[in-house]
Each structure stands twice: as C-alpha cells, then as structure tokens.
Amino acid sequence: MGFRFELLHRDLQTRGRVGRMETPHGVIETPAFMPVGTQAAVKTLTPEEVRAVGADIVLANTYHLYLRPGHALIHKLGGLHRFMHWDGPILTDSGGFQVFSHSALRKIHEEGVRFQSHIDGSPHEISPEVAIEIQEALGADIIMAFDECTPYPVTRDYARQSMELTLRWAARCKRHKARNDQALFGIIQGGMHAELREECAARLVEIGFDGYAIGGLSVGETKRMLYDMVQACEPQMPADKPRYLMGVGKPEDLVEAVLRGVDLFDCVMPTRNARNGFLFTTHGRLVIKNAIHADADRPIDESCGCYTCRYYSRAYLRHLFMAGEILAMRLNTIHNLFFYLKLMQEIRAAIQENRLARFRSEFYERYQTRTEE
C-alpha cells in the first residue's frame, strides 16, 4: 500500500474536515495528533504504550537522527520502523526547524545550511538533496521538504527572501526524491505576512506535493497571528491533500486550527509538560507539585479513562514527582498524550455530526487556558 488521502466529511458550519491517510505502515484518521519521538523514542514510553494511548502515527527528527546514531546505521539495521520497534506510520521532519533553533551554530546559503553539531561541535552541511537522502534512508512514511524556518520578528523583505529560498529548496527536494513508497510534503513559509503565505502555498501547489505543511509558526507570534496565518494558507491548499500545522500546540490551538481546515499536528507540549509536572485536564492545566494535591485521593481528571487516571491518585502522583521518581514522568506522559489523542477523537466525532462550532464553544466553557495557581 502506498500513500493515499481520502476526504470523508466536511463540517457544515466550519472548515473542519474528517479524512483518512493510508500509508505503507497503516491508516491515520484525521484530524490527528502525532506524539513527538525526536530521538526515535517518545520520551519515557514504550511503543506499545504509545499505541495504547491512541496514537496512529509518531514523528521522528531528521536532524537529531542524522547526528546520532546516523541515518546510514539506521538504514543498515532495517530502517526506522524496525530500529525503534514501531510498526505504525512515521513522519520525519526535514531538520529545518532544528537548524533554525541553533542559529548561533549555522550559516544559511543557496546550496543549504552549514552548521556545527550541538553535540560535539563537528561541522556539517545539509542541502535539500541531503535532507531527502537522510529521510529516504530512515524510511519514514511521510517525509518533509527542506525549508528555512523564517524567524519572528523579521522584515517583510527578509520574509520574502526566506520564502523564495524555501520554494527553490522545495523544488530541488521533489526532483531528488527517489522512493515511491514515501509521501513528500511541501512546507509553506512567509513569516507573519498573509499575502506571502498565500503566494507560497499557491506556488508549492504548482510544484506538486503529496501534502502541505504550514511551518514557521509557534516561534513567538501572538495567537491571533498564528490563527490568521493558518486561515490565509487554507484556501490555497488543495482539498484532496492533507494539511499539516507543524509544531502546534496547546489544546485550544488544535481546536482553532481544525476549525480552519487543518488535518495533522505535532508538538512536544504534552510530553514535555508531563515531565515537568504540568497535566492537562478537561478544565485546564493542573500543576501536580502544588500542595493542594498532597492528600487528594482522586485522579487527575475524573472524566479521563487513561491508565494513570484509572489507578493512581493525585496524592500518589505528587509524591512520585516530588521524590524525583521516573515513574512520575511515565504516568504523567501517559495521561497527557491520552488527553490530546482523546481530544482529537472528540473533534473528529464533532465534525462527523456537523457540530464543531458547538464543540468549540463547549470546550471553552469548561477549559481554562490559564494554569491553576
């Protein structure tokens, strides 16, 4: 089975859509959230546990796996699926964001990016062609075109130059791609300028990709900017191709972006927050270390059916966290990922029943976007 996307239903009042992505390693029901497995592992969990919380697909990071242990080694050992013991779909990002985030160690030029490893300072260079070669060696089901992640804030002139470079690199990626069993997504850039986003999306469609991603967001802009840029891109993206919002975000961001026509998400927020004791609940984010939970003989969220909430009290979870026990991070991560994936399941049901706008209102009625004191 190759890659195929089928649009199954559109919400009657919003841009929300339910779809189905078929890949060589399984099916993804969309809208979907991808747990992040940067180093070929979702931190603290086994692949079986990631499956148990409801994940269909995971994300792995090209930049990090290129540096350690190396894509050639992973390829030699049977590819990323076998290497990490995950038999479901995998998406690998191109490494553009990681190069962007290590700005002091890199130099961007027409051919690609020269950079120093953040691990040992060794020099490296990744071009669009090399990014494709790495991802083909890793063997992910969905791979990303190499892009420049436009920083924020920048001038409109810089944003245009960055967008033009991303477009030239995207075309090179498509020309260099050799494997037919991997889907290649192009990435829309353009900073916080709606007209550049629209232009970039339209020109990527002319090149032709299996899906389209919105990149360069969640880099310090306001919520309004984030949502406006998604809204600007959406009309330019083909209805019969999946839309992926990269690196976003908070639960409310998922709701808002689905409302604007997005199908696929990834973010470190549920796993990173879990390791730091911040837990997502039906009513907002909870801080497990707070003294109020010291003798609380109840679960994180009474309406949650995850393994953690079925068997462990807030008091026990606080004890583990305060004691520095690894089990605290594991149980917290199980809960947070379950929360995110259940939210996506509820969103899909709302779209199928043409009640996404009502779902959004009900979500905000109960969900507080401010962390508890």
Describe the structure.
- The chain is of the alpha/beta class.
- Helices cover 41% and strands 19% of the residues.
- The strands form 4 sheets. Strands 4-14-13-12-11-10-6-5 form an 8-stranded parallel β-sheet. Strands 1-2-3 form a 3-stranded antiparallel β-sheet.
- The radius of gyration is 20 Å and the shape is globular.
Biggest sheet, open or closed, and with what strands and sense? 8 strands, parallel
What structural category arises from helix and sheet content?
alpha/beta
From the alpha carbons, calculate the radius of gyration and give it in angstroms. Answer: 20 Å
Query: Count of helices?
Result: 15
**How many strands appear in the DSSP assignment?**
16
**Uncertain spans:** none
Fraction in beta strands: 15-25%
End-to-end separation in angstroms reads: 50 Å
- Rough outline: globular
Strand order of the largest sheet: 4-14-13-12-11-10-6-5
The average pLDDT value, as a whole number, equals 96
Helix content: 40-55%
